[in-house]
Amino acid sequence: MRALVDARELANAVAHAVRVLEKDDPGVSLSADGERVAVTAAGDSQWSRSTLDAEILEPGDVVVNGLWLASLAQAMPSGEISVETDGPNLQLRGGQATLRMRLASEELRPENPAMPDSFTDVDPAEYEALCRSVVNAAGATRDRPVLAAVRFRGADGVLEAAATNRFMAGRRSMDAAVPDGEWLADADWVKRNARSITSIGFTGRHMVVRTAYDTDMIALVDGQYPRIDGFWWDTAEATGSIGVDRKALTEAARMLKSVCFDTSSSTVPLILDEHDGLLRVSYAGTGRDSDSAGVRALEAEISGEARMKVNADYLLAALGAMDADTVVIRKREGSDGRVGPYLIGQEDGRVDQLIMPVRG
Hints:
It is found in: Cytoplasm. This protein is α+β, with helices and mostly antiparallel strands. 16% of the residues lie in helices and 42% in strands.
């Protein structure tokens, strides 16, 4: 095997693929065929192939230690290099630099899983926005894999993504001719493989995403997803609302969170209410942080009884999942005085977030 490639492109391709490797099973395949070099790796529940443009002088396919290859590729100087086999070794050679490593046993060759029967083309920017709008709402602990997953659902030419950690939830939809169905995929993987996606596909066991150069697969999460659809409510039922510049509210929440020094609680309560015709965002410390306080006033459109109490982290996560200049935070108070989850939306109606109020 011998191929001429760009050193940085090779390093990036290897780094992309080896992310899925298990430390005790580091084998990857390195192949040169047609006009591309491909690096393929497999882990416990994931599979990845990354390709790069190349001038193929001698086609070939070998197995190497992927972690070792990643180190060598990263160490090579920039510019065109030769990737070539030399007896029992793989050699990277460019300019005055040459690095060599031993080939691995064929027993370490990663298996290639079955691909979906068909793929659905997606707009890369829309798919990235879809994923970005929900991944931060997923649970952070892997011991509850269902809550740590994103639920994808296809119906009538629309792909919807949703996630929740039970304290907040996010959902967004986009036009995509995916088959009707429901699939759960790990949120960290979804976030890591959200950029530049041109097509997606599903099997009974896997989700696959593709870019122009990369293909990534993960085993679907087994389990019943929480019945979160009923948590969203009709905006006509709102008893109070706040329309505010998203970036301004984000800056205010960050500023006020920064003056909380009580590390005994994960909740930083912020109060949103009307004062002198403006939206007042305030923090008043309690317990160990009772001496800290802060307030920020913002221009806003406020209607009804709009006093709200939110966790700063959840508010920031929800605002970060939106992409409109203005967002509307709505409150619904029942006849018994109990306040349900706050609904945060934007004008296009494609994305909305729910966050639970801070009680007390």
